[in-house]
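Rotation project, supervised by the postdoc (A.L.). Task for the rotation student: set up a whole-complex structure prediction and record inputs and outputs verbatim in this book. Inputs entered:
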Amino acid sequence: MRAMRTLAALACSLVLRGVEASDSRISFQTPQTLIAQDIVDLHTWIMVIIIVIFVAVFGVMFYAVFRHRKSLGHKARPFHENTTVEVLWTVIPALILAVMAWPAAKVVLAQKDSRGATITIKATGYQWFWGYDYVDYGFGYKSKLATPRKQIDNTQDKDPHYLLEVDEPLVVPVGQKVRILTTSNDVIHSWAMPAFGVKQDAIPGFIRDTWFKAEREGTFRGQCSELCGQDHGFMPIVVKVVSAAQFQDYVSHKQAQAKANADDPNKIWAMADLVARGQKVYEANCQACHQASGMGSGPFPALVNSKIATGPVQGHLHIVLHGKNAMPAWQGLSDTEIAAVITYERNHFNHVGDLLQPKDVKLARK
Amino acid sequence: MTASTETLHLQHADHQAHSGAHGWRRWLYATNHKDIGTLYLWFSFTMFLLGGTMALGIRAELFQPGLQFWHPEFFNQLTTLHGIIMVFGAIMPAFTGLANWMLPLMLGAPDMAFARMNNWSFWLLPPAAALLVISLFVPGGAPAGGWTLYPPLSIQAGMGMDLAIFAIHLLGLSSIMGSINIVTTVLNMRAPGMTLLKMPMFAWTSLVTAYLLIAVAPVLAGAVTMLLTDRHFGTHFFKAAGGGDPVLFQHIFWFFGHPEVYIMALPAFGIVSQILPTFARKPLFGYVSMVYAVCSIAILSFMVWAHHMFAVGLPATAQLFFMFMTMLIAVPTGVKVFNWIATMWQGEMTFETPMLFAIGFVCLFTVGGFSGLVLSIAPIDIQMTDTYYVVAHFHYVLVAGALFSLFGATYYWLPKWTGHMYNEKLGKLHFWWSMIWFNVTFFPMHFLGLAGMPRRIPDYPLQFTDFNSVASVGAFCFGLGQLLFLYNVINTIRGGAGRAPARPWEGAHTLEWEVASPAPHHTWETPPDEALVKKGLRAQLLDQDHE
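Outputs recorded:
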């Protein structure tokens, strides 16, 4: 079987040399895991079979089309069945399927076997970014699109990694089995990394797992692969594979940072600080729909002078926490972030309103 | 008394013209299978243009990276409505329309079994279409969660989703009634001597399709009703917060959805099995094995649904089971393709427009079948699912498959419907134009998918630019070319290339060619005699040696 696959790969690389050369535009991204390599091999093997069948079937058909035509004076021979032929072309395809199914089944089993991972990371889908929690190391962060809005709106030249860059990538060590637990905060997302041969839906209320073992260091890029609302196309996944030593440094750095950065939910904030913090939260989470001007767009309502942003603060808080229609529930933000963004919305856009403290948010969550 | 008898006589004499109501009443109160067939076909063509316009909206946005025309939310509305409208509004009603027009003619029956129900099943469609269109204008806009309507995204949506749910209810009701009509007509109203295994293949595929629809339309209705109650009445079928499971919806949806794929493919098989023998001037090869293939595809289609869900995280055993079952479908599908080729083999082929579309169908459906085979391999599917590879695959089977067969059917039977020949040159131009631009549009999508471009995104990374631009150019050319078809049909109705004889195709032998062109308003009021039925069967069954 191995020999057959090598042969198939060889044949296909001859046929598709041009294809393989211009990696990631016309064919698979260069595989970085053994599973991804298995998938490419399987695909090559199946393409070889398909091309053989294709040539045979189309050859016979076009021979008939060009030779057995009335304009050449060909006369119809009205045969209409032949049991031998019909049995053959039922049985032979079934046998061909068997030689496709066997290697495929082996890859299925390998792909599902997530035992023995050295690191476990929880990937949570949010509308519209990813959150990563290093459950073994006690820190986590959000990973958001880093492409500037202006590039999306075509007012600035696009970076080479347009829509495939994030503010904070997932960092993992090379050569170790990493288990990814996926779940979601709102709707179904899908955590996909083509170079690793990984795609696993992130389903709210459920935890699913997948795994990979990257063979090389480098930065690899994927995108959310399940329609999750308006910014589905704007929540990339970037994985940085580093050496074991670099990974250890990274972990200690993140742990220290997490300790330093932890917002104290009981802290009492001053208006100016909270508005400044809120602006950052707004830009990262709200601006895509409600726009920097607060005027909204399309189906997304304006905040400027809206009943919610200028009415009772409890109503404002409720809608941010629980969502409504296209507005997602923002439970995934921290108390401080929610307090900041609400305060920002009520004291920006020429609004003059209340100051909401994190502890009030904490109370409202209960 | 005398007067009314005279009217009666006149009406009998005036058989050629339609009896009963005239003007709009003829259509609104229609109970004649030909009138209803015509309504279905025009409705579906209108929906095809509407859904096609939305597709062009999608392709315009994807011509270049960056956001050009639409807000992402509206882009999602376009993809969703395009899917729902094409599946439920264009393709399915077109096949029901063809079944309405042709089944009684082909089987030697005077009409469909339930004439009034037939009227009702058509007239449910326009309100359903209206609901879908209106949804664009309600607060929150049209549904934007994809035609698959996966929760929780579809639970979040605005009231456009409710309108879509009601539209799906109506469309489902219409399909079920249409199917009951087809089943009853085929089983009970065949001319004497036409046993089940002597029916034209189109009757067989319509029959099996109708059974599939009766089985799965209620499943979809149940799924969307559960969505509705989750949205408004506090149930938690699909909400994890209340103990529900979002994936449950996918299981139910695809239990409908996979047979649905064959609901759109089987009638196309039937049409091609009518057209190829006609223009090859040879009986259909392997008639009985074709029937078995159709039936086994239909049965297998109930056992493969989870291959749409390999990325949700199924247990390994389920992945293996659904992978093997899916691969198995290649066997009967292959049998059909081989039979079609054997039908052409040693034929006496001519290449009028219907034949071109039928051969185009066989070629491109086979390509779509190959990409389906690639996708059936679970590990590869995990790499490809929700990428443009899937988009390429299902457009090969639905556009080059279902739609091309519908074009072929229209050219094939247009002389019977209108009494006029269509313009052959324009027809051929339409075929080659569609064939070329279809491939320019959809073939590059295989590469986009392999390279990892997710579907349903309004903007994309730069390495996907070239193929997207090509696909967009192709889509606009393909779309504009369909106006040729519209022109050709209207022109044919108005006289076209002259009067059509009752049997415009030398090799056509089924019963519909025994009646005049255009087909009189009422046909086969007395069933054709057995000799005629037997003569009609020559093309599909009997060797010249046997005669």
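Student's summary: The first strand of chain A starts at residue 119 and ends at 126.
Supervisor addendum: Strands of chain A lie at 119-126, 129-134, 139-143, 170-173, 178-184, 189-193, 198-202, 208-212, 218-223, 236-242.
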